[in-house]
Amino acid sequence: MAASMIKAATAAVSAGNMMRAQAGRVGTAVAAQRRLLHAAAPLRGDKLFVHRDTEKNNSSIAFEFTPENMKKVEAITAQFPPGHRAAACIPVLDLAQRQYGGWLPISAMDEVARVLQMPKIRVYEVASFYTMFNRDPVGKYHVQVCTTTPCMVRGAYNIFEHLQKKLGLHNGETSEDGMFTLLEVECLGACSNAPMIQINDEYYEDLELADVDRIIEALRKGETPKPGPQNGRKAAEPLGGLTALTSEPVDGAHKFRTDGKL
């Protein structure tokens, strides 16, 4: 009995030493990035949930949906049962944001509440919860750099720092000419194509620094750079070609392409 207890205690000590050693290696790796974990949060907590009137954002600035967008609002709300117009809050807020140049003033939220016949506070809750809604003005091109783990290990910090220098902006800032807003963000869901950035509605993936320069210069010239992978991939397929479903099917009930294409 005593021998078993000693053996168990020894194993526990050994496991603890291994965990401490592993934690030390992780800490060293993180320190090598020379980045602070809180650097990805340019907005303070009160900013996320509190509105304060400014010259550009106050309830006295009128907002109305254009006739064309009002037709879209009615088409959206028609998809929901009577008495449940509030279910259309997210797409209608998105429509308001697009109409107002990429951000949501308080007056636009109030108009959404009126149109959907719901309390204003419910609209504020939605708009302040989802980071896709911008409650401050953004530039014509909203550049969002993902720095979550897959992108980070593929060089996202280098891309972010390169963009800071190229645009002359820090995290969360907008250029004086209103052309660019730069923001460091969490996962954008394109991990297989890391590193990547989102500019407005488009994803630019599999990036090198030269690709970033080319994309930014194209935008400055008023051009539209081709979105998606920038290294020749069509989507998220392996760079070396297909690695599965490359042989003949095991029976006649299954058919696979034989030309090697997706």
From TrEMBL:
Top-rank lineage group of the source organism: Eukaryota
InterPro entries: NuoE-like, NuoE_dom, NuoE_N, Thioredoxin-like_sf
Upper classification of the organism: Eukaryota, Choanoflagellata, Craspedida, Salpingoecidae, Monosiga
CC cofactor: [2Fe-2S] cluster
Name recorded for this polypeptide: Uncharacterized protein
Alphabetized UniProt keyword annotations: 2Fe-2S, Iron, Iron-sulfur, Metal-binding, NAD, Translocase
Chain segments carrying region Disordered: 221-262
Keyword Transmembrane helix recorded: no
GO biological process: mitochondrial electron transport, NADH to ubiquinone
